[in-house]
Amino acid sequence: MRQQAWQLEEARNGLSQLVEQALTEGPQIITLHGVETVIVLSYKEYRRMLLNQHKLSSFFAESPLADLALDLHRDKRVWRQNVEL
Question: How many domains, the chain?
């Protein structure tokens, strides 16, 4: 998969080529004033990314630390001791 960076003016003038490369070669990056700003990718790639997302709750539930006992007790006093940072 070849990612190519395009300056905005290049992308504007070569939109057909930009789209073709996004379809055949993978995501294409568009820069604005030398900063990577936008990415163009095929709809197929976009859908694949969406379908591969997982819930954060599932991530934590499947963690090897899921069964670890944590002390979640909170000091409910209004004034707590100063904590040095």
Answer: 1
Whether 28 contacts 3, CB under 8 Å: yes
Q: Which residue stretches of 25-67 are H helix? A: 43-51, 56-61
Residue 46 lies in a domain: yes
Cross-strand partners of 35: 32
The tens-digit pLDDT sequence of the chain (85 residues) is 556 899 999 999 999 999 999 999 999 999 999 999 999 999 999 999 999 888 888 888 888 888 888 787 887 777 767 777 7
Determine the structural domain holding residue 15 and report its residue range: 5-61
Lateral strand order in the sheet of 5-7 = 5-7, 28-32, 35-40
